[in-house]
Amino acid sequence: MVLARVTRAGAWLVQSGIQEPSGGVARYFRADLQRNLPISTEITGYAVSAFVYLHELTRDQCYLDRATAAARFLCSAWDPTLRAMPFELAPEPLTYFFDCGIIIRGLLALRRAGGADFMPAAIAIANSMASDFPAEDGYHPILALPAKTPLDRDAAVWSRSPGCYQLKSAMAWWDLAQATGDARFRELYNTALAHALRSWSTYLPGHPDPLKVMDRLHPFLYFLEGLLPRVDDPQCADALRAGIPRTASYLHEIAPRFERSDVYAQLLRIRLFADAAGVVPLDRDSADREAAHLLTFQAADPDPRTDGGFCFGRRASECIPHVNPVSTAFALQALALWDQHRAGKRMPPPDHLI
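Predicted structure:
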């Protein structure tokens, strides 16, 4: 049953039109308005990783072809004059630290799967992250182009503030070090790790509004994911031991009012990875409940633009009409990994994490 749900999610990514003819992937589908939002380079980067993961599961060449089309779009989006990856192609000329790392990880996933090799592009984007975004408190989250000046921060909006969540993006440097043998990239990851370890303990709740706290669980889980390359470090292991139950507690407390499918998927994934690393024993009952609840976010609809995709979330039990490619990618991976865990199969390494 779970495999069939994963297959439907993969079919939605291919057949719904969320990936447009250019290869770029829209931010999400507005089911109420019957249209896609604009293409996002970050979401396209996630889609590359998701298509590669689906290819690894199924060996269906279609997924590798879709990943290649998305990667080519990303390379065409790169501005070689500015040496910058834009957030969207229009209208605002912005570049995000976080997005760059997600894009690099997608390009490396495609290379790892034996697809086209976009290593020069991955290295160019990684160098941009290293040279353009450093700040006294970590990394500027957003730069305005063409001058690459830091955008004004907003402490109430997590994506417009630096924070421990940026470690997920910095995993791209670790993955590049593994792929190239260049120790400079490993040191860049280690620097990001040091920043994250200094700040993570105060990241939650981070806002007086519980609904905003639910939104912050999503980036906090990015931080936990970003620890996976260094789970052998006692500080990283301690953060996972503290962070997983803290996230679960906030999630289940706030869920009756507002819940996000990506948070359920990310929590299930980090439980499985932390257990496989021998750091946090799996709470099987909680994982089973979270997997079952995650399935309730999957759309069942005659319309192929929605059927099989995962909605972004619910407010007071009412589904938010955003069918989201990242929510879908996280959910299909979480459910597939849960199914494999129950079958006694080995977890993949952290570089396979979408």
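Summary: The chain is about 55% helix and 5% strand.
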